[in-house]
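stage 2 :: seqdesign
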């Protein structure tokens, strides 16, 4: 039977990594296993007390029922406490916080709540592809804004202000920025809030990387006036090593949370309570948790940088987050060409920057989610082909 997919899916392809992982699986059947430095999926476990909490709550007889649509009070309180402790943002756990099944679903919820045919949304190029996909699914039009190394990967708000913003309803922002690893100075957040106010645009800030190799974790909501014009997504995937658990959060005004709940509560029926209680435990960890995590990532980053240097790439040492974003040598037509050559010749996969938008065409992105031993093995394989 032929059945046509809905119009909203006609320009939405399968997610790049979903296809690429299938290709890697096929390659794995033919010999030496591919070393995958493509995806930012933490390989380390969460804190032991998080696992114990999950186990403890899962062992109880009455924790298996449907849960509240707005999240368990203990998790909402833990999110509010975490925002106060690390970002100095005061949130009311009853009204300003919505736990999510990972922050990725929040991207879709926000777009489906506010956007429709005829609307426009500003999107970072390069940027996380899920923003553009969610905007497309909503029926609205994505308007890419260019990020460049020359501008420290920050949007040029003055240039944007000169464009027609009459149909723009939301602007996606993401600092520390993925894939470039750029952090935003506080002054930029002030400017973004003023811009949003002036043009009546909702800032949607996606903030999953603030604790990774970043000296100053920051929330956009700490900026004066931000709560009026912004919502923020956050995640336990990277900073608590809980990517597979699927726990994220949306924070914003009571009005925004209520509007987004109108969409979300029709999609799912709350998260498994033991996962919520374990997430609350993860958020209660002190700064030492992030320090030990970053010690590991710092050592790995050194190795990843050595490997990228061997490939002739150049990169900024001040980067933040779970990746190293590196400019490829002029001898390659694009990051795709180098990535494919690496996969075929060395069986190492590094993400081509072009999947994040054409602004990333001359870059590749290497993940820090591999042990030092695996990185040394990758180094050896690459040295066999690229070493002199
Ligand atoms: C910029 C950015 N936002 C959001 C996400 C999704 O995170 P989560 O696991 O919370 O859905 C990712 C995951 O890679 C990401 O890189």
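stage 2 :: out
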């Amino acid at each position: 039977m032929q059945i046509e997919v809905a119009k909203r899916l006609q320009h939405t392809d399968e997610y790049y990594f979903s296809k690429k992982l299938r290709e890697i699986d096929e390659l794995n059947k033919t010999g030496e296993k591919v070393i995958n430095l493509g995806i930012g999926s933490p390989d380390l476990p969460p804190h032991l007390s998080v696992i114990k909490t999950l186990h403890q709550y899962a062992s109880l007889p009455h924790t298996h029922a449907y849960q509240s649509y707005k999240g368990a009070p203990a998790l909402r309180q833990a999110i509010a406490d975490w925002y106060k402790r690390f970002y100095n943002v005061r949130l009311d756990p009853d009204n300003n916080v919505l736990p999510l099944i990972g922050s990725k679903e929040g991207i879709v919820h926000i777009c489906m709540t506010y956007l429709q045919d005829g609307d426009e949304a500003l999107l970072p190029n390069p940027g996380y592809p899920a923003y553009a996909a969610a905007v497309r699914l909503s029926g609205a039009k994505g308007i890419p804004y260019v990020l460049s190394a020359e501008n420290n990967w920050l949007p040029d708000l003055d240039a944007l202000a000169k464009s027609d913003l009459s149909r723009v309803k939301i602007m996606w922002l993401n600092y520390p920025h993925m894939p470039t690893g750029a952090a935003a100075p506080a002054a930029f957040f002030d400017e973004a809030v003023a811009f949003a106010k002036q043009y009546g645009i909702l800032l949607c800030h996606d903030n999953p990387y603030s604790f990774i190799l970043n000296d100053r974790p920051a929330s956009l909501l700490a900026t004066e006036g931000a709560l009026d014009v912004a919502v923020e997504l956050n995640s336990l995937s990277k900073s608590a090593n809980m990517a597979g658990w699927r726990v994220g959060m949306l924070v914003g005004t009571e009005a925004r949370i209520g509007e987004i709940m109108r969409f979300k509560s029709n999609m799912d029926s709350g998260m498994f309570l033991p996962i919520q209680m374990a997430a609350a435990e993860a958020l209660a960890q002190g700064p030492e948790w992030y320090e030990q995590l970053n010690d590991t990532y710092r050592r790995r980053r050194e190795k990843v940088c050595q490997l990228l240097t061997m490939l002739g790439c150049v990169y900024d040492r001040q980067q933040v987050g779970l990746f190293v974003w590196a400019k490829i040598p002029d001898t390659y037509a694009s990051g795709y060409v180098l990535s494919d050559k690496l996969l075929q010749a060395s069986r190492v996969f590094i993400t081509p920057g072009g999947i994040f938008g054409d602004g990333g065409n001359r870059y590749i992105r290497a993940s820090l989610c591999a042990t030092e031993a695996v990185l040394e093995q990758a180094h050896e394989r690459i040295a066999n082909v690229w070493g002199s």
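stage 3 :: structure notes
- Residues 7-45+288-386 form a domain with the Aspartate Aminotransferase, domain 1 fold (CATH 3.90.1150.10).
- The mean pLDDT is 96.
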